[in-house]
């Protein structure tokens, strides 16, 4: 029975990453599959660069950005792509806030839908929403609960950890993409991993429509 998942196991220094690199190179050369790599030790960049792919350095000091608000019409298997995107943004909010109360979830969901409704009315790349748009819409909502959400989001929007408050400026559509997360600090590690996985999911949904396979490699 074929399964779409696999593990490369071995003791430290036994060549697990090398084995993964050989498999990636082989998959790139003999298939048409798209390949995404989550790289916690910054060791896949030379291979990806040699294959003409995109290396994205995800760190607070990087000038390469991926936007957690990115969305496409194929994002969900359901009719409404906002259902799944709202769930992702609420998960993001939980990491930012520690705990999100039921009424706060409702505020975030309502504001998120307003932001995306404006985008879907004119869905051009330069109008893709960013966290700032959601932050501002929550401010327009008003009230103590909305203010609390904004206080918790502030450091990730207008503060020192605002690396994810930008539109995507790298080629995430490249056939092979490496997400270098080595320099993500403790405060951003979980947030960054969630956002990278969401970006990969976006690629999977686009490829699913064209019956194209997507390979995801996650190193330890």
Q: What's the count of strands?
A: 4
The spatial strand order of the largest sheet comes to: 2-3-1-4
The end-to-end span amounts to 27 Å
Parts with pLDDT < 50 across at least 5 consecutive residues: none
Rg, Cα atoms, Å: 18 Å
What is the global morphology? globular
Strand content: 5-15%
Mean pLDDT: 91
| Class per helix and strand makeup | alpha/beta
Biggest beta sheet attributes: 4 strands, parallel
Order of helices and strands: HEHEHHHHEHE
Number of helices: 7
> Percent of residues in helical segments?
40-55%
Keywords:
220 residues, globular, 4 strands, alpha/beta, four-stranded parallel beta sheet
Task: Describe the protein in words.
The chain is an alpha/beta fold and 220 residues long. It has 7 helices and 4 strands; from the N terminus they run H-E-H-E-H-H-H-H-E-H-E. The chain has helices spanning 16-30, 45-50, 81-97, 102-121, 131-141, 144-157, 189-209, and strands at residues 34-39, 54-57, 176-180, 214-218. It has a 4-stranded parallel beta sheet, with helices on both faces. Helix 5 (131-141) packs antiparallel against helix 6 (144-157). The chain is globular, with a radius of gyration of 18 Å. It starts with 15 loop residues before the first helix and ends with a strand. The relative contact order is 0.23.
In short:
Helix content is 47%, strand content 9%.
Summarize the SSE layout with pairings.
Blueprint: H1 16-30, E1 34-39, H2 45-50, E2 54-57, H3 81-97, H4 102-121, H5 131-141, H6 144-157, E3 176-180, H7 189-209, E4 214-218
Parallel strand pairs: 1-3, 1-4, 2-3
Helix pairs in contact: 3-4, 3-7, 4-5, 5-6
């Amino acid at each position: 029975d074929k399964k779409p998942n696999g593990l490369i196991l071995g003791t430290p220094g036994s060549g697990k990453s090398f084995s993964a690199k050989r498999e990636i190179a082989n998959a790139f050369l003999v298939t048409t599959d798209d390949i995404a790599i989550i790289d916690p030790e910054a060791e896949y960049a030379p291979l990806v660069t040699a294959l003409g792919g995109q290396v994205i350095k995800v760190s607070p000091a990087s000038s390469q950005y991926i936007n957690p608000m990115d969305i496409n019409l194929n994002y969900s298997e359901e009719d409404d792509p906002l259902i799944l995107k709202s769930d992702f943004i609420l998960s993001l909010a939980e990491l930012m806030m520690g705990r999100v109360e039921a009424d706060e979830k409702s505020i975030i969901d309502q504001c998120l839908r307003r932001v995306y409704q404006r985008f879907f009315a004119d869905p051009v790349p330069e109008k893709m929403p960013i966290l700032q748009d959601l932050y501002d819409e929550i401010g327009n909502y008003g009230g103590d609960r909305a203010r609390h959400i904004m206080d918790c989001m502030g450091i990730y929007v207008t503060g020192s950890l605002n690396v994810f408050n930008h539109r995507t400026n790298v080629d995430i559509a490249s056939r092979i993409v490496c997400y270098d997360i080595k320099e993500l600090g403790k405060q951003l590690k979980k947030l960054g991993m969630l956002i990278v996985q969401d970006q990969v999911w976006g690629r999977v949904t686009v490829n699913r429509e064209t019956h194209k396979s997507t390979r995801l490699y996650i190193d330890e």
